Amino acid sequence: MARVFIFMMDSFGIGGAPDAADFNNEGANTLGHIVDKFPQLRIPNLSSLGLLKAASEACGRPLYLSNQPQAALKFPSKYGHAREISKDKDTVSGHWEMAGLPNLSGWGHFKPDYPSFPEDLVQKIVKESGIPGILGNKAASGTVIIQELGEEHLKSGKPIFYTSADSNMQIAAHEEKFGLNKLYALCEIAYKHVQPYNIGRIIARPFVGEKNGAFTRTANRKDYAAQPFGETLLDRVKSSGRNVYAIGAINDIYAHRGITHPIHAAGLENLWSATVEAIRTAPDDSLVFTNFEDFDMLYGHRRNVEGYAKALEAFDAGLGQLNQLLKPDDVVFITADHGNDPTWEGTDHTREQVPVLMFGKNVHPENIGQRETYGDIGQTIAALFGLQPFIKYGKSFL
């Protein structure tokens, strides 16, 4: 029986979202603008799967890469592009929609200016957790605000609270001096108190260092996501008796639901290693789902075009391992959850279409064109597993 693998390239948009103007993102194009800056970008395996063709169709302009080496990957593929119908352009919405559960109502959001968080909410969190107060209380870049307030945090013991354009409350604290477990416990308290505000995620952001300008975030981030408001693909696969491997942030994004094997990993190299190990060991009829978060976290939000380009090349090189690992009936999907154009103003996600690539030895090659929702992927995977189709959203492209 076929095994299915989903490689979620977090934030890897390809432009052309029909509603981009509603988000002030008209013209945003993560891949297109990276290619403009680096026309010799080396992604032969992704290119062989039809990525550039899909991206050209999505954004309405041809994308070319010069001097591409020969692709190592030798599988036929379907390729296309999907628009998002969820009302927000955040990680949770994109992942849930792909799994058959679009967020059509949208999330609640905290205001960007100081104070972002209502005073009564702050006081409830402070009282229950016993912390002496909070710092920040505004929208900010996480890497910037820890340099701004890290020393004050160490002196006062007050954690740093901030938000972004997405639906979240983020809490940063020193991993060693404040304590990782204490930070996680604080986030659990905060998660409980933000429920009336319909907030998508609480994010624990531990960091280390001794002085402003030298603080660095660690790999021990933890997300506390809202519970899915309906059945997802992962729930359906698990309830059918199959194994569901969640690698990286997937376990948190789906609020620990529909998962049999949560696997912690962070960083592109470690995520690939964990994925390869799962490919080697997962039994037949399994679903393996990896979130490759570096594209978003390290390069998109930080507007690091060169770093994003190098990460794409590293990811593409990882694909070359699959020739020797995949079984004849295995099927792999490569997609994304939203855009995060590293050339765009600000630091927030961008509303874009995403690639939909499907490959495997027995996949019939085809241009599947425009997909009207990310949910087409979940519907297709349900069909591969012989599960009942999702009633409301998504159309299989088998």
Give an overview of the whole structure:
By secondary structure, this protein is of the alpha/beta class. It has 13 helices and 14 strands. It has helices spanning 30-37, 44-48, 51-59, 91-98, 119-129, 142-156, 175-193, 233-239, 250-253, 268-281, 294-300, 305-319, 375-384, and strands at residues 4-9, 77-82, 135-139, 160-163, 168-174, 201-208, 216-217, 222-225, 244-247, 261-263, 287-292, 331-335, 354-359, 366-371. An 8-stranded mixed β-sheet has the order 10-9-11-1-12-13-2-14, sandwiched between helices. Strands 3, 4, 5, 6, 7 and 8 form a 6-stranded mixed β-sheet that branches. Strand 4 (160-163) and strand 5 (168-174) form a beta hairpin. The longest helix has 19 residues, at 175-193.
Determine the strand fraction and express it as a percent band.
15-25%
- Runs with pLDDT <50, length 5+? none
- Tell me the series of helices and strands, N- to C-terminal: EHHHEHHEHEEHEEEHEHEHEHHEEEH
Q: Figure out the total of helices.
A: 13
**In what order do the strands lie side by side in the largest sheet?**
10-9-11-1-12-13-2-14
Task: Write down the overall geometry.
Answer: globular
What does the main sheet amount to? 8 strands, mixed
